[in-house]
Amino acid sequence: MSNPIIIHDVGHASAAMAVAVELDIDITLVSAPGAVAYLGATVFRDIIAEAARENPQARYTAVLDCGDEPGLALGAMRHGIKAVRISNGPEISDKLADIATQRGVTVYQGEDPEIDLGGMTDPAGACRAWLRGDVS
After folding, report:
1. Confidence (pTM)
2. Helix or strand (DSSP H, E) at 125
């Protein structure tokens, strides 16, 4: 997964996808930290689906951040989420990764630098600069 962008709403997701299409690159859309607890898997799934309808050529992976809540991560998998991030220790993360693999779900490690669109007044411009490498 490449070019990680932290999104907070459908506007962010759509802006990121539109720029990815413009630049002809793949992106990874990551929810805000711990979003599973306050947003929920279904709302996140719907945000991504709406942005994808607006940008049908976008090539993306969507990751729901589950904080340190493995139970909520499992619930997200049951709701059709195909990639999750969890911030527990290695023992729990390894167990979750095993379950995820059995369900065809990826456990995202998030080791690359990310841009967070929270509070950005021009999310498309921020994405464009980030994806072109114009910012660090």
Report:
1. 0.91
2. helix 123-132
